[in-house]
Amino acid sequence: MPKKNYTIGIDVGGTKILAAILDQDQNIVGRAKKKTRVEEGVEAVLVRIVDTVNEALAASKVALDQVRTVGICVPGPAEPDTGVIIEAPNLGWRNLNIIEFLVKTIGRPAYLSNDVTAGTWAEFSMGAGRGARNLLGVFIGTGIGGGIIIDGQLYEGSGRQAGEIGHICLNPHGPVCGCGRHGCLEAYASRTAMTRDIKAALDRGIKSSITKEIDEDDRQIRSRQLRQAFLDGDKVVTDVVKQAAYFLGIGLGSLANVLNPDCIVLGGGVVEAFGDAYVKQVNSSFKRFAFQSVYDKIKLVQAGLGDDAGVVGAALIARRKHAAAGKDQA
Amino acid sequence: MPKKNYTIGIDVGGTKILAAILDQDQNIVGRAKKKTRVEEGVEAVLVRIVDTVNEALAASKVALDQVRTVGICVPGPAEPDTGVIIEAPNLGWRNLNIIEFLVKTIGRPAYLSNDVTAGTWAEFSMGAGRGARNLLGVFIGTGIGGGIIIDGQLYEGSGRQAGEIGHICLNPHGPVCGCGRHGCLEAYASRTAMTRDIKAALDRGIKSSITKEIDEDDRQIRSRQLRQAFLDGDKVVTDVVKQAAYFLGIGLGSLANVLNPDCIVLGGGVVEAFGDAYVKQVNSSFKRFAFQSVYDKIKLVQAGLGDDAGVVGAALIARRKHAAAGKDQA
After folding, report:
1. What is the pTM of this model?
2. Which terminus of chain A has a lower count of CB atoms within 10 Å, N or C?
C-alpha cells in the first residue's frame, strides 16, 4: 500500500475552479483549472470540480490512493464542521453539503473552508506573511474579505464569521453596499465600487480608455482591463483607484488600531492588477489612519501566492484538521 | 508565617485612586479611595497611591505579609513587561517605572496593566461577560477604549496596543479627535464628544438645564450632571446622547463583523450615567450595522462591576502573571 502523503486542494470561485496536488512538503506537484460556468447549474459545476481534480492528479502523476485528504474552499459563509455551504451567491449555492459530495465521489476525507480564510492561512503559512504572529489577510476583488491569525492560529470567531472587514462602516451616509448598508469599506474600495465610480465618470462624459471595456454580460470591468488602463495612466481609472486605495487605507488603519497585528497581507484580483503602485497608495493612507506606534511595527505586504493561495490554504487546512481529528493513521 | 493569599488591586485614574484587597476567592475584603490630584505632581500622587493601599489594608484587616502580589492599572499605554508607563496624559506621566516604585515601597511583586485591559479581564472573569469565549470590552468615558478576549485569553496584540477601538474611523471628514485625526469613534461617542456637542447647542442659544453645570476648571461636563439632565428629559442632552449612542452602535457593528464575538460588555462612566435607556439606543444602531447572523449570536450587556472593574482586573492579572512566572512558591 502506497504512502498517503498527498493532499488535494480545490478552490471554487465564481469564474474558475482550481485544483492542486500538494506533496508532504507542501510543494504543488500538479494543478488544473477549469471555468466554473455557474449558469450551467449546480450539478454541472460539481461534475466539473471532480474533472478538475482528476486532471490535477493526472498532471502530478499522483494516484488517488496516494492522497490522504481533500480541502476545498468556496466564497461565502461555510460551516466547516458540517461541510455545508450556507450561501455562496457567486456560485448560486445554498445549503449545499459539498463535503458529503466530495467524500462520496473522491472517496477521501474532505474539509471545507472559506476562500479568504484559506488564502490567509496559506499566506501566513508559506506566503508573504510567513513568520508573523498576528496577521490580517485582506483580499480585494468583487468584494473585500479578511482572515485573521491570532498568536499563530486561525481566528474564526464565535460563529465562524470573523473577518468580514469589507463591512466595517467608513461613513453611515456613504454609498450603498451590496449588503444593503451604507458606507461599508467594500462600497468604497472593492472592484465593484471602482466599476461604479468609473461608470459614473463615463456617464458624466469624462473621457477614458476604458469606455469599450465594460463586460456586457455582468456590467463589471475586469481587473485585467482596469490594470491596462491604470498602467496607461488613464485619468479616470487612476483617480478611481487612488480613491479606493485611500479608503482601503482608512479601513486598514482602523483595523490595525484594534488588532495591532505585526503583518497585513494584501491579496486578491485588485491587488494583483495594480501591484506596487496601488499598495503604496494604500500604505500612504494607512499610515495616516493608524497610530504611529502601531503602524511602525506592521509589515504591510502584497500577497505572495497569487492564484494558488486558495488551493494551498484549503489543502493545508484540510491536512491540519485531519491530523487534529486523529485520523492520520487511517 | 501566614499564608500569602491576598492580592492588592490599584486603579489610578485622572480623578481618583482606588485600591482593593482581594482574598483567594476573588472577593473584595477591603477598599479605599482618594482623589488623584494630578496637579500636585508625580511624587505627591505616588505617595497617595501608597496611602490608599495602606487604608485598604487597614479596612480589610489584612497584614502586608499576607499579600502575595500587587496589580496596578493606569489609563494609557503601558509596558507590562518592564513596568514602564509610556504615557498617561490624564496623569501627566511619561516613562514612569511604576512597578519599580511599588516593589520598593510595598515590597511585593507588582504587575502593570492598562485600565481598559484590566476592566475587560475583570468583566470577563467575574462580571457581565462571565462564560463568554470571545469578548469585546468597551469602556466609554472621556475617551473610548476596548479590551479583547480571544478564546478565553486576553489578546494584547503584537505591540500590546490592541483594542484601540476609540480610533476606528467612522468618517474621514468627521469631527476632529483628540488624537488629531478626523471622525474617530471617540470623536463621536465619548463624553468629550457629548460635551462638545452640548456646548455647541448652548452656543446656538438652545435652552437646556445643563447650562450652569459645566465644570469651570476643565470645561468638561461631569457624567453625574449629564445623567440628571438625561433623566429629566432635557432635549439638548437626550439628543446628544442619542446621537452618540447611534455612532457607538455603528462602531460596534463594524467591530462585531470583524471579530464575531459572543459577548460585548459596555462599561465606563457614560454607560453608568445613562444606563439601560442608553444601552438600548446603542443596541438599536448596533443591530443595523452588524450582520444579522453576527448580531443574533452576540450578548450586548452592561458591565457588572462598576468602579471595581479596574482594581479587580489589575489584581486578577497580577495573580495570573505571578502564577505564570512560577513565583508562587516565593
Report:
1. 0.94
2. N
